[in-house]
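Example 3.2
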Amino acid sequence: MSALRLWLLVALTIFVSGQSRAQSVEIAFAAPDVQINSRFAGEQMALFGSVDDVAGQSYEMLIAIYGPRRNRVVDRKGRRAGMFLTTERAFYRLLPDSYYLLGGPSLERMTAEALELTPLDIIEGARMEPGALADPFDEALLTVLQGQFQYGYRENAIQFHSRDFFSARWSLPSNAKPGIYTAQVYLVSEGEVLSVDTHTFGVRLTGFERGIRLAARNYPPLYGLACVIVALVVGWAGAALARR
């Protein structure tokens, strides 16, 4: 291969790689490690970021905040033989405890629906038995989670301070669960996803609550015995006071 052809091949490779390089987003959390206890009353969360290699494209941004995941069961109660019993049940696998979809001044619901990022999409995706019969369970679960401020949309949550620098704010509720939270940043242009960047932050228990949690996880027999002893002592003390 001649030197000229070699240089042309190298130049073409650089050009193609530069053209195909995807946009990337760099973010930093104002509080990457949130500490909670029994007196935790919620916290205003914030992240700051920049978009690289926008190349003059117009785009919109969505940020999905996922809480820790766990399995859930939703029951439907009804009367059978004069008793109030569970008549139907739906199972959800690794459903996020909390989920917030952050958008700009006009959150594009159509884009969120196309990417299946709406809160209802997240619940439907975790259901273990897909089907139209489970739709009432999904909607009922969403209503409960929204009422507990654990699921929902946050319009006006993302603010662009320049073309490539932005910030986002949302509220972490007082009933937030400890664990690892994930923020997925979506850059979308004309219905096409330009990039998806994933970042994490932590929420952890501190103080007495953390000690109880660790004891229950690491020493379950001793923890159970301690609970029984405490219950007996409290019951004995209550009975003694009642006799006076």
